[in-house]
């Protein structure tokens, strides 16, 4: 089962190379990958319908007991089948839609990688694996939305989607860490066994906030919905895939998956119902403002996502059943309608419904696909959308005022969606034909297979309610609620049932919305234009302010004055030295400083040999020369004297390896400094004002005293030799080295050493580049005087 998430990534790597040899048939060949995954997943249907859950786990980071686990139950199977099935049709569609595009191979790579990320997301059992695939969907969707990177609108839409969804990704990571600390497990399947542990935890509110932020950013809930319409700058196949059954449904999947452990509380229900209902109405009204087919469908996607979140928030058996059925219905009709919009744009050159009429005669198959999908979106009988709508209303007939208010919101929201579906189905295709930028004709077969098949499935599922209830509804509801919801879906129409009359009311209101769409669009656009700010402009203002703030901070910190950099560095060192002494020891650190005489006795200088005295005097001489050096070159060499004296001290006190390392460092440092300053006047003395001497001297004394006091504190305590004993005992058997210093540098702190080497290498390259810079002076040649023409 783990291969389901891996195979698309392998296919993504091979896609550009395959495209070079197969050309226009690449879409047909690559569509076999998700089709094979779909068929493979179908083999699990019988076991999952029977109530079995399949789990596969691999050791990921054994030292931290982290496993890469995948889990297949009714909920993940429905999502995975939808992703792979619609994905196969989208890949096939993309081959024809982008035929001849110079980056079509790259597009297939992005699309298949995104598909793998989504399959990994819905199959992952570990919260950390879920987060990994969650972020991969953000990255791959960024690449897909910004595919046409030559246009500023595409780049902006991609960046906006990446920023918003990554905020949710960070919230998801925080929530996952909190859950693992509270419940003691990373696996979502194991969280069910913890019962009310999370709900009774004092951190429940914080965990809930993290998961809601993650879900709301991904599934475009108000007020974080604004990125989704801007993502329509992506090619139409991307819109059909991302915004029907994949990325935007990830937040819905997360909420459904976490319902058993986080749901059922008042705050859960209130937040999801309120924001879901607001998003439903907002998206429905937003669709009426648009005239572009893709923008209309994008706004209805926002509304549908709000509807799904509202149903999850209600949490009853009927609402969860409605959520499952509506997810499938929405995936069918929305993917089909997006592909229809792409076909219309591809063959006519426009998506504006105000200039499209009478396409049914020239594009009859496309019209049939649009009609089948739109009928399911309206929710007419014999479509899967009808059963989804019936289930929504079923759980809200108790007469409770809150449920009545929720029922009104659902009826109004579904009426808005029905009216918009009529617009999409009727306006472009019926009526008297009008001229379009290109002469309309039927789309290629590869662009028609998807919408016809999905529109047909919406009808087939609607006339097979027993299959829908038994094989789809019951397994998914078992995964969400922990108990199977009894299916009562039926084709029988009860004219005495309030549910049927609520559906009739929805259809009548939908017709009214369709008939008043033009007037409503005018009013809504006037209101929109009167508003000074909206979420989209606020995002731009925030991003612009962030860029300006970053620039100001950069100019403040990177001002180019080296002496101020050093003042800040050594000032921070002084704080780092004295801060812990004051916090941890108060003024007790003054005791060893006041007992300086005892320290002088402890280090009996009379026992030093003449050569040890020579090293001490050499160090002192180097220090004095550095301070009073008359030229820059003398100061550089004096620094080398200081380092050499330190290396000799290491050598005399039994650390030859360390001494050798110090010698190498000093030689290299002096050589580099001399090399860098070779183009300067090294025989000059830098004139420095007295205030600089006072500032730098004070900082130097404070740092010197701080280092001395810190060392005195350390040496006054008991030496803990556990670390040095570990190095001594394991240097040979583990690292196979007798030079302990080298073993520490290469093995025990190898990554740290690698980082230091990389820094030194980068600095060396920068130094070489600076030394090779030559000042180029352009001299303009004088223009030759223009010869005057002699008169004829």
UniProtKB/TrEMBL annotation:
The record describes its membrane topology as: Multi-pass membrane protein
Residue ranges constituting the NADH:quinone oxidoreductase/Mrp antiporter transmembrane domain according to the UniProt record:
124-409
Recorded protein name is Monovalent cation/H+ antiporter subunit A
Which NCBIfam families does the entry mention?
A: PRK12647.1
User: Any stretches that span the bilayer, and where are they?
Assistant: 30-49, 78-98, 105-123, 159-183, 203-228, 268-288, 295-314, 320-344, 365-384, 404-424, 445-464, 498-517, 564-587, 607-628, 635-653, 659-678, 699-719, 754-773
Major location category of this protein? membrane
Could you list this entry's UniProt keywords, alphabetically sorted: Antiport, Cell membrane, Ion transport, Membrane, Transmembrane, Transmembrane helix, Transport
- Source organism per entry reads Devosia rhizoryzae
Q: Where does the record place the MrpA C-terminal/MbhE domain?
A: 694-772
Lineage: superkingdom: Bacteria
Identify the residues that the record assigns to the NADH-Ubiquinone oxidoreductase (complex I) chain 5 N-terminal domain, covering every copy.
Answer: 63-108
Cross-referenced Pfam families: MbhD (PF13244), MbhE (PF20501), Proton_antipo_M (PF00361), Proton_antipo_N (PF00662)
Subcellular localization is given as:
Cell membrane; Membrane
């Amino acid at each position: 089962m783990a291969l389901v998430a891996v195979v698309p990534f392998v296919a993504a790597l091979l896609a550009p190379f395959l495209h070079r040899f197969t050309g226009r048939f690449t879409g047909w060949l690559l569509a076999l990958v998700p089709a094979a995954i779909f068929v493979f997943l179908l083999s699990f249907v019988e076991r999952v319908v029977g109530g079995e859950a399949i789990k596969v786990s691999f050791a990921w980071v054994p030292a931290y007991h982290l496993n890469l686990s995948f889990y297949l139950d009714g909920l993940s199977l429905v999502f995975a089948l939808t992703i792979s099935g619609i994905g196969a049709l989208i890949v096939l569609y993309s081959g024809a839609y982008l035929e001849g595009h110079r980056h079509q191979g790259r597009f297939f790579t992005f699309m298949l990688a995104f598909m793998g990320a989504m399959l990994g997301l819905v199959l992952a059992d570990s919260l950390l694996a879920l987060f990994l695939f969650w972020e991969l969907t953000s990255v791959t969707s960024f690449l897909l939305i910004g595919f046409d990177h030559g246009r500023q609108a595409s780049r902006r839409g991609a960046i906006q989607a990446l920023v918003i969804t990554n905020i949710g990704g960070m919230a998801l990571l925080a929530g996952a860490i909190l859950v693992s600390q509270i419940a003691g497990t990373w696996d979502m399947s194991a969280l069910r066994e913890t019962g009310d542990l999370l709900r009774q935890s004092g951190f429940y509110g914080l965990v809930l906030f993290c998961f809601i932020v993650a879900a709301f950013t991904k599934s475009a809930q108000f007020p974080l919905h604004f990125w989704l319409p801007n993502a329509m700058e992506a090619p139409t196949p991307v819109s059909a895939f991302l915004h029907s059954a994949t990325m935007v449904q990830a937040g819905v999947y997360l909420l459904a998956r976490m319902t058993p452990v986080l749901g059922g509380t008042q705050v859960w229900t209130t937040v999801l119902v309120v924001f879901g209902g607001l998003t439903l109405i907002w998206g429905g009204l937003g669709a009426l403002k648009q005239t572009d087919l893709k923008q209309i469908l994008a706004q209805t996607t926002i509304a549908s996502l709000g509807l799904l979140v509202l149903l999850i928030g209600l949490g009853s058996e009927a609402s969860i059943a409605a959520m499952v059925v509506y997810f499938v219905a929405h995936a069918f009709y929305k993917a089909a309608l997006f592909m229809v919009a792409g076909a219309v744009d591809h063959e006519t050159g426009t998506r504006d419904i105000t200039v499209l009429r009478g396409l049914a005669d020239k594009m009859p198959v496309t019209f049939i696909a649009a009609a089948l999908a739109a009928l399911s979106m309206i929710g007419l009988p014999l479509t899967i959308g009808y059963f989804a709508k019936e289930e929504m209303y079923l759980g809200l007939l108790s007469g409770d005022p809150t449920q009545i208010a929720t029922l009104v919101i659902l009826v109004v929201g579904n009426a808005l969606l029905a009216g918009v579906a009529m617009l999409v189905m009727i306006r472009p295709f019926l009526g008297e034909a009008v001229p379009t930028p290109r002469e309309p004709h039927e789309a290629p077969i590869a662009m028609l297979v998807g919408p016809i098949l999905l529109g047909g499935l919406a009808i087939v599922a609607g006339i097979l309610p027993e299959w829908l209830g038994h094989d789809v509804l019951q397994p998914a509801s078992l995964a969400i609620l922990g108990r199977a919801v009894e299916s009562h879906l039926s084709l029988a129409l009860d004219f005495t049932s309030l549910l049927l009359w609520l559906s009739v009311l929805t259809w009548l209101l939908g017709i009214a919305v369709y008939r008043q769409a033009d007037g409503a669009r005018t009013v809504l656009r006037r209101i929109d234009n009167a508003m000074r700010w909206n979420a989209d402009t606020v995002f731009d203002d925030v991003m612009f302010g962030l860029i300006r703030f970053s620039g100001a901070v950069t100019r403040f910190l990177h001002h180019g004055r080296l002496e101020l950099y050093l003042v800040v560095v050594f000032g921070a060192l002084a704080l780092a030295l004295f801060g812990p002494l004051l916090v941890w020891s108060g003024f007790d650190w003054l005791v060893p400083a006041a007992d300086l005489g005892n320290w002088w006795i402890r280090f009996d200088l009379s026992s030093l040999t003449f050569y040890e005295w020579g090293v001490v005097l050499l160090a002192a001489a180097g220090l004095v020369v550095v301070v009073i050096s008359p030229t820059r070159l003398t100061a550089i060499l004096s620094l080398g004297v200081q380092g050499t004296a330190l290396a000799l001290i290491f050598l005399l006190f039994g650390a030859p390896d360390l001494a050798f390392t110090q010698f190498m460092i000093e030689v290299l440092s002096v050589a580099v400094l001399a090399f860098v300053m070779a183009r300067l006047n090294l025989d000059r003395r830098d004139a420095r004002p007295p205030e600089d001497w006072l500032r730098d001297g004070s900082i130097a004394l404070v740092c010197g005293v701080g280092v001395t006091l810190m060392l005195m504190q350390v040496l006054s305590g008991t030496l803990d030799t556990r670390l040095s004993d570990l190095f001594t005992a394991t240097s040979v058997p583990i690292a196979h080295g007798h030079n302990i210093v080298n073993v520490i540098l290469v093995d025990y702190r190898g990554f740290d050493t690698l980082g230091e080497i990389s820094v030194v290498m980068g600095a060396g390259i920068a130094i070489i580049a600076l030394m090779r810079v030559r000042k180029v002076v352009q001299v303009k040649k004088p223009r030759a005087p223009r010869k005057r023409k002699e008169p004829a």
